[in-house]
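New to this. Explain these tokens.
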Amino acid sequence: MTAARVCALDDIAPGTALRVEVPGVPAIALVRLDDDVYAIGDRCTHQDISLSEGEVDPDDKTLECWKHGSTFSLVTGEPTVLPATKPTPVYEVSVVDGDVYVEVP
């Protein structure tokens, strides 16, 4: 695994998602909840829809697909609401000196 710098922490508004590109892996949605950052595959597994355009639920730590309403756990990538039934990948995140790094294969 390699840690790739993807953005500055300040690039992600609290309670929102940001789509980032990392060479060698599909797009990733970064979600900021206060000072915690989560990285989840930016693709709904029900249809190929960008999750970073969806709504973040900070209480449940989920990201909702705007197209059909499936929600995905930011912690596990597992869908929590149908119609999606397959998980999306999650990645380890670290914040160092105000920069966000994602562990990628």
Observations:
- The chain has one domain: 2-104.
- The beta strands are 2-8, 17-20, 28-33, 36-41, 56-57, 62-64, 71-73, 90-91, 93-96, 99-104.
